[in-house]
């Protein structure tokens, strides 16, 4: 059972969605402040999970989003606008992915 627990813990290290980083560490990694991360949460761009003690915990995926927001803010974009831009970029990427899937299905079915 101990080996199984270790395997599960090791698997989490590769999981982009695992909330592995405390607020302080997350802010340090993206070169911002905890207040910036809180602002992203208030803007609903990212929603950190909470530890049993109630502390915010961030995943690598959330840190990539926060880093993108920081880039935009550093370029002079207001934080609310930066959050909206990131949301729209994400929606566009998803739409393009779905469009490509539909094209693939259409070309597969027309080739038969």
UniProtKB/TrEMBL annotation:
Q: Tell me the ranges covered by the HTH merR-type domain, including all copies.
A: 20-88
In terms of domain of life, where is this protein from? Bacteria
Q: Which GO terms describe its biological process?
A: regulation of DNA-templated transcription
Gene Ontology molecular function:
DNA binding
InterPro entries recorded: DNA-bd_dom_put_sf (IPR009061), MerR-type_HTH_dom (IPR000551)
The name under which this protein is listed is MerR family transcriptional regulator
| Species this protein is from | Streptomyces alkaliterrae
Taxonomic path? Bacteria, Bacillati, Actinomycetota, Actinomycetes, Kitasatosporales
